[in-house]
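In the previous lecture we treated proteins in isolation. Real proteins rarely work alone, and many bind small molecules. This record shows how such a complex is specified: first the sequence, then the SMILES for zinc ion.
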Amino acid sequence: MTHSSPAPNATADVRTHEGVLTYPDRTPSAARVTAQHRDAKARASRAALTWAVGWALAVAAVFLPVLHFILVPLLFVGSPMLAWQRLREPATLIQAEGACPACGDRRTFQLGGAWRERTSLRCEACGRALALVLPEAPASS
Ligand SMILES: [Zn+2]
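The predicted 3D structure, ligand included, written as tokens:
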């Protein structure tokens, strides 16, 4: 049977990864991390959308009294910078799931930034500052 062909044009390439939750002087615990991966085409369209929306907002901000002195230059310069950043972001962290190494409570941590080898988190149960340690960003497909 030929059911092994990859899904064509998958818009949301969400994958699960192994990570580790750490707290000083405690045994690290395993964490399951979900991240959205984007290929070059998906990254380019996301960056283009960011840039376009930013400049559209800059044009709209021209009509705001006083605020336009700040908003227009900020959006005009900031949009390409944010677009550039998104163009170079192959994976975005969504959430991490695992037991807190300090209190043992199982938690789901909502993330949202680019893939980082070290992310600071706070356990909602005990309030301690934890670190989520991940391997190097996986190669983009
Ligand atoms: Zn905790």
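Summary for your notes: The chain has one domain: 12-133. Residues 100, 102-103, 105, 123, 125-126, 128 surround zinc ion (CB under 6 Å).
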